Amino acid sequence: MVRIIDDAFYVIRTICQLHICYVASTYEVFIRAGVLVIRLAAGEPDFNTPSVIVEVGINAICEGHTWYTPNAGLLDVCSPSDEVIIPGPFYVSYPEMARMADANPVIVETSLNNNFLLYPKVLESKLNEKSRVLILCSPSNPTGSVYPRKLMEEIAKIVAKHPRLLVLSDEIYEHIVYASTTHISLLLLCLECEREH
Ligand SMILES: Cc1ncc(COP(=O)(O)O)c(C=O)c1O
């Protein structure tokens, strides 16, 4: 019983430490004090939800689409002391997500010189028998980097050599690409390769 309560407190403490919530609540204080704040924390637009989206949402609820979607994630795939590889700079919640799954976040720093991209040799040097998940975010928040096809292919090849390693491919910003580049989905890339071979 004590263990359960301890675990619950650990989870609550962890969630409370999600930095994004802290930043979002802090800037509200500044805004109320009349300070001009440019919000770059939570991914929230500065306009109301367009009516066409509101309508689709209401219709979906009326049609009974109110149940949980599949939510298997890190909690389901990680065991204690597994490692979750996170290229940095990273979206702030990733390490907490790993910790909540009892896994260890392994931050692999990237640099401006490499466009904040994770290079194959660096990835390979971090892989071991504990490596369970690689979190890849492209287009990336916060760096804006987009993995080019060739680099994505090289990463896919390395992942294929490590059967225990899963990739959590965060493509949430697939439609927000500013430079003359194209978003490459790791999953689609792998499916393409499978079809060709
Ligand atoms: C890269 C990235 N992944 C995931 C999320 C979280 O998405 P959700 O709103 O579905 O929790 C965010 C939110 O800012 C994000 O920037």
From TrEMBL:
Signal peptide: none annotated. The keyword Transferase applies. Residues 73-185 form the Aminotransferase class I/classII large domain. GO terms for molecular function: pyridoxal phosphate binding; transaminase activity. The keyword Heme does not apply. GO terms for biological process: amino acid metabolic process. It comes from the Eukaryota. Pfam families: Aminotran_1_2. Keywords: Aminotransferase, Pyridoxal phosphate, Transferase. Its cofactor is pyridoxal 5'-phosphate. CDD domains: AAT_like (cd00609). Belongs to the class-I pyridoxal-phosphate-dependent aminotransferase family. PANTHER family: ASPARTATE AMINOTRANSFERASE. This is Aminotransferase class I/classII large domain-containing protein. It comes from Coptis chinensis.
